[in-house]
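Before the break, one more example. Copy the sequence into your notebook; we will annotate it together after we see the structure.
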Amino acid sequence: MSTPSELQAGLLRNARWRPWEFAVWALAFALPAVTPSHALMINEIAIVALFAMSLDLILGYTGIVSLGHAAFFGFGAYVAALFAKHVMPDPTVGLLAAILASALLGAVASVTILRGTDLTRLMVTLGTALLLLELANKLDWLTGGADGLQGVVMGPVLGKFEFDLFGQTAAWYSISVAFVLFLVMRRIVHSPFGATLKAIRDNRLRAMAIGVPVISRLAVIYTIAGAVAGAAGALLAQTTGFASLDVLAFDRSADVMLMLVIGGVGWLYGGVAGAIVFKVLQDWLSAVTPQYWMFWIGLILVLLVLVGRERLLRPWTWFGGRSARKGAKA
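Here is what the structure looks like once it is written out:
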């Protein structure tokens, strides 16, 4: 059994930044300037990557299965849009308001996932998102209903940077927020708190037996994940100037789950990688085959599940083990 000092050393070792991580974020901040024609797509990728990382906090690191994570995304979008329309147009203040409101929703909703099986959580989380969707539809005097919340005008970021039609300011704004929240999440998952989350994921009964406060840990991480998802939704509403029922739709929850399937769960960069691959494939396939792009994405997902992500990345393992490697060398 590892000693406390060895465990602490392991946490510190895992928390160190790798050189490739600096390169990834440097490239992310440079892309809107290098490829300004794709700034709007880069902005969208940054938003859905943040959304995917928030789901990975509860799915990959804690083992909480959810099909209603769009509830927090959509709630954050509507709060940010309503704040800009009726209170003040400052995007940073509106973002903070959306994060706090989504965190409160996450704290309330965390009660629903503390007990029951994975199937129960699937149904409860899905039901929560559907309830919010119907509520937003019925309160059309506030949310705009099926027509969406229109007339949302955002002020300049930090009072200096106006949102432009090409989306460069929006892209840098979303990437900056995603980076700051990524640092927070990275610190959480590589802390002793994060280690207890993994213990709960691996064996909840054993975690309870060694004294881990499972109930409070689940409530806290669900609240944090809700806040981060709300921030992603707020970014979407602020950078597009619009919020509609689509932000609460089941498709949002399904898409973000697919991103984690593609990128991998249990590491934050899986959400980033999955978001990039999913959005690029969606954009390319919808342009090539507008009617059948979902079929090809589904086929890729089936291959990932049947073959395995690691084997797809290592072609010499496609035909099995050492014999394939020997044949490749020959």
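The two ends are 44 Å apart (CA to CA). The chain has two domains: 18-275, 289-330. Try to locate both features in your own notes.
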